[in-house]
Amino acid sequence: MRFYFWVLTTLLLPATLLAETVFLKDGKTHAARELRRDGNFLFYKATTPDGSQADTITPINQVERIEFGEHPAMEAARELANQGDALGVLEKTTDPAAFFRGYSDVPGNQWAEVMRLRLPAIAVAGTEQHIATLQAQWTPTGDLELDTAYKLIIAAKNDPNGARTAWKALAQPGASSLSAGISWLGIGNEALLSKQWNAAVRAFLSVEVFVTQQKLLQPKALLGAAKAFVQKGETGKATALVEELKKEYPPVAEEAASILK
Amino acid sequence: MISPPFATHLHPRWSTIQRLAGGLCLLSVLVFGEADAQIVPTAAQVTETYNKAMSAFASGDFAGAVTNLEQMLSQGAEGPGMESVHYSLAAAHFNTHSHAKAKSAFENYLKLYPNGSKAADALLSIAQCQALLGEKEKASATFELVAQRGGPLKEQAQLSKAALLKEMGKKAEAATALQALIAGGLKTQESIQAAILLGAVEAERGERTSALKILEQLEGRFLHLIENPLQLNALAFEVGDAFLRAIELKKALRAYSMVRRKEDLILLQQQRIQNLIRRMETNVAAAKNDPARVVELTNTNNRLKLLVDAAKQTLDQAKDAPDNLFALRARQASAYQETGRVDEAIILFESILGSPDKTGREDTLLSLASLYAKNGDSSEALKSLKSLLAEFPKTKNIATALLLLGSQHLQLEQYEPAAKAFTALLSQAPKSAQVPTARFLLANAQFNQANYKEAIEDYQSYLKSFPKGEFKEEAEYRIALSHFFAGEYGPALEAFELYIKQHNEGLFVPDANYRIAACYQAARRSEDVVKRCSLWEAKYGDHPVSGDVLALHGDALSALNRQDDAIEVYRKASVRGATDEVVQYALFEANKLLQKLGRTEEASKMFLEFLAAKPEHPSNVLAMFWVAKGTHKTGKTEEAKNYLREKIAGFIADRSKDAVEQLISQLAQLCAKPPRSLESASPGNVAPYNPEENLRQYLDPKQLPTGPLVQARVLFAQAELARFLRKQTAVAEALDAICDKIPPKSLGAALLAQSADRLLERKETKRALEFYKELLTSFPKSELLDYAYNGQGQIALLENKPEDALRSFTDAIDKAGASTKLRDVTLGRAKALLLQEKQDEAKPILEQVASTREWRGEATAEAIFLLGEVFEKNGDLAGAIQYYQRVFVAYQRYERFVGRAYLKTAECFEKLNEPTKAIAHYKELATKPRLAGLPEVQTAKQRLAQKEPQ
Predict the structure, then answer these.
(1) Are residues A131 and A63 in the same domain?
(2) Fewest beta carbons less than 10 Å away: which of A50, B548, B651, B879?
């Protein structure tokens, strides 16, 4: 039995511009363009053996996996993440999030990849609207680190006491996960508010030294540590952090400089 | 070196036959050549031999495979199917590590089948054999041949050649070859492997930035494709170390951030194995559905199986490998430390201590101690050092640890343990490099304990052992200082002069000149002092000790009765003084002279100028006190009150301003007396003056901030007013309200001291202790600490703990100066000594209390009474009676001692067998109406009844 068929009529449905490879459970592969999903079917233009393009419909349950090409916005989002530009990342990942959410049950989807950028961005710069949208579109990524981070973001909004308990449990010395980073930021911010400068420094610098991969959390952490150092009267240390922020994270350079004023 | 391609290599064709073709064999294509004429094996026998060989091969018995395959060749089998036999034989040799035989067999295969299906594999294998046999140049050329042939083995050959070039030290050539391999992107296993190798080559070549770029490329998205993540970790360490050595710390940290912890590596490898197995399962399913793809998919799965096996091997390696936690954190910490980011380094090292893995704990504890010390956190440094020395008493770094331990104790002004640590270093590591510093710091520890004799000996010992030591100059100077502080001004003068002679441009010359002047002051040679101070001021101007010199100059002028000059110099000193103590001393000495000369307005002006110049100085409240006093003295009482109101309102809610109570007291004092206008007015013309109402006008709670501290200070104002109005009940009520309503943590130093004393008076020792402790903890620099030490001592006396009491009284003098409580502390010391039965030590102290005019009062009565007890205990009853009688004759006001003194006198007379005098004293005590309430009266009556029965 063959689980796919060629369709010679042109389908009038919106499609993506991405180039993907669809792997079927029977071992066949399709080089697909303009892939889109409608319910339990995939619609795309597949390259036929003679090199021409044919509109194709494939039941989703026959797809083993899809190797998605790089979403055009993702590379830009990654670059912005490296500069610690959370707002930029939020903007750039809006479309990929919406797109890959539709394929989150298909192996090979990049939902987790998108969330890997979007969750830390929301954690440091997300508005009520961002969080509401995230909650509405959320489906577990299967990656414990990301799923825990999501729960922390939502808890911080809906159950602050629960979030505080989780922060304490997750913010262990040496932990390098995203959720540990979010927890330290939460602890650091609360310590700043309660004028516990040493605790604030410790929490924020823990993000710097342990959660090194999360570039989006770094500026927030360094800014927090610099503020705490200023309050402690350790201006030299604050200045060093501000200089690093200005050099490494231009989007927050102005905010960093204002700390020393 | 890249692993040989078939270290666990299954013959693909065999696999196909065994697993998929279900019994098909090659015999149909095998024919026999000129076999042994006598024993010609049958086709069945050959088939059996072949099957045995392949079965052995498949099960990893490569030696068995060799035996059977060689037997086939000896049987003379021929035909196209023999290609597989020759190839398999070579592969089996390879797998038995018989590389020479393998090479020969592969060469034979190529000779027989130059265009055979495995010709490229054979050539690649020859290259690998050459490499393994040490024929590196040849191997390189052969790999190149394979690469030039193109095809699926091209990348593998290029990779192997590059690895070989690296091994041969041809790093530039290796880098070029590897760069070519990754030019098309990281898409294949070979290209990823090439990238890892290139990273290592670039790191070795010093091309750190290029190596880091490669690491960054490999990070994240390609991680799941990397065959051996341990290699990537090793590369990240290597690149990080290269940057660390080059002091490119940010990049070093970037590289280290890519090192994965052991548990992450294990997880990563497990995921990789699962993915590979999933792909194999998919292939099996696809093969079932499409028999035409069986051969292709089986070959794919065989390759995948090899990858799974290799991945499992790597997984085992990762599991067996030691945790890299310490290696990683220590490097990261080192990078942060190099940039002066000590806090980050501390956090990193602390994370190691929390780990169950104890690797590197010894080094971590020492590093942490050193970092805490660098960060100015001596308490934490001491904790780490104590843990280190407890857990590793024979630590390899004992000298460093003890030096650090001693220096941190010094920082915390804990001189005794500091000296102990340095002494331990000198005895445990007498040949270490730290000995000179330890010897010098040991002397400093003695100096700081005021053990000047020992300090001089230790400095001299240092100078003798290390005549050209780093601290020579300072040691010589400190010897002079030690004489100076020991009050040995003659030797001090000589030593300072010698120091100046030897170190004309020395660091301490200005200070030495100042001390020389002070030596002359001690000898009362004020003219010389004035001369020397003037010279000093001309030479050193605003040197940091200029305030001290000016104050000394002022003292000398004052001694010469040149008061106007002295005032001027003191005022200069109050501006120049580098420490609060000097500023305060000079200011108040000037004030003393101004008050003496009646120049009150000038004094007020001086204090106003001081307040304007030093708005944050701790003596400000005292200055305000004098401004208000001066204003009042010039008849402007209302102005003084308003001034005080304004200043008090500014400080009343600030707990740290512990002198504000003095202003409040002053305001209360001013409010206690009616204004002169009312005093002179005839009664009836004006409403009677109400001091409480007047105080409320200037200290209106409604116009003040709210809070327990403000509430307490308002109550204190009421208590002070009551005290001036001699309303003792009101005083007690107000103070009790502070004690009972306001938590100690809300009170300032003055109120803590007074409340605690009040609680002690009420015999609430537990609560009193709580207040005293709060005073010590929250106001460690307060001038009122003697209240706390004295209070603690008095409580210890009540609890019959004379040792604790003595310690507290000593602290009151040594640590707090006992400016206010000196009388109580001195008497307390005597009482503690008496409790220890040390009458001889107590006696001179009691005599001192009894003879100090300024302390005349209840303390005198008590001291005289106790002197009586001392004489009595020493058996001098007549002497004792003299003291007891002095109490009830001269100090009748202090009834609690009067009653006891009468009783004691009578008892002494009884012991002297003078009953008449005893009875007379009992009677006097029993009949004095003023003493009727004393418990001693009942005792006297009982004794009288026994002696004179009715």
Answers:
(1) no
(2) A50
CB B198 within 8 A of CB B178: yes
Residue A48 falls within a domain, yes or no?
A: yes
Classify residue A107: in a domain, yes or no. Answer: no
- Is the CB of residue B129 less than 8 Å from the CB of residue B95? no
In degrees, rounded to 5, the angle at the alpha carbon of residue B166 between the alpha carbons of residues B164 and B167 is 65
Judgement on whether residues A62 and A131 belong to the same structural domain of the protein: no
Q: How far is CA A145 from CA A151, A212, B262, in A?
A: 10, 15, 17
What interface predicted TM-score (ipTM) does this complex get? 0.86
Q: Is B703 helix (H, G, I), strand (E, B) or coil?
A: helix
Closest Cβ–Cβ partner in B293, B339, B351 for A27? B293
Chain A environment of B222 (Cβ under 8 Å): none
Q: Under a CB-based contact definition with an 8 Å cutoff, are residues A201 and A232 in contact? A: yes
Asked if residue A131 and residue A60 are part of one domain, the reply reads: no
B347 with A202: Cβ contact below 8 A: yes
Q: Which of B257, B343, B351 sits opposite A174 (nearest CB)?
A: B351
* Final residue belonging to a domain, choices A43, A67, A91: A67
Residue of A nearest to B292 (CA): A27
State the CATH number of the domain containing residue A63.
2.30.30.100
pLDDT in tens, B650-709: 889 988 887 789 899 999 999 998 877 666 666 566 678 899 999 999 999 888 988 999
Banded pLDDT at B56 (limits 50, 70, 90): confident
Answer whether B344 sits within 8 Å of A208, measured CB to CB: yes
Judged by CB atoms closer than 8 Å, whether chains meet at A208 and B286 is answered as no
The average pLDDT across B196-224 equals 82
The CATH number of whichever domain residue A132 belongs to comes to: 1.25.40
Residue B544's CB is within 10 A of a number of other CB atoms, namely 13
Q: What is the domain count for chain A?
A: 2
Q: Which of A17, A41, A67 is the last residue of a domain?
A: A67
Candidate ranges A5-14, B243-252, B310-319, B839-848; pick with highest mean pLDDT: B839-848
A27 and B343 in contact by Cβ < 8 A? no
Answer whether B339 touches A (CB < 8 Å).
yes
B286 touches chain A (CB under 8 A): yes
Question: How near does any CA of chain A get to the CA of B602, in Å?
Answer: 38
Asked if the model's pLDDT at residue B88 lies above 90, the reply is no
Q: Give me the residue from A64, A202, A212 closest to B282, CB to CB.
A: A64
* Contact call for A173 and B283, based on CB within 8 A: no
φ/ψ of residue A67, rounded to 5: -95, 105
* CB of A172 closer than 8 Å to CB of A180: yes
**Which residues in chain B have Cβ-Cβ distances shorter than 8 Å to A205?**
343-344, 347
Residue A153 forms part of a structural domain: yes
The tokens describing B428, both together, are 């445990």
In terms of domains, do A157 and A61 share one?
no
- Asked whether residue A49 is assigned to any structural domain, the reply reads yes
Instruction: Number of A to B CB contacts under 8 A, please give it.
Output: 50
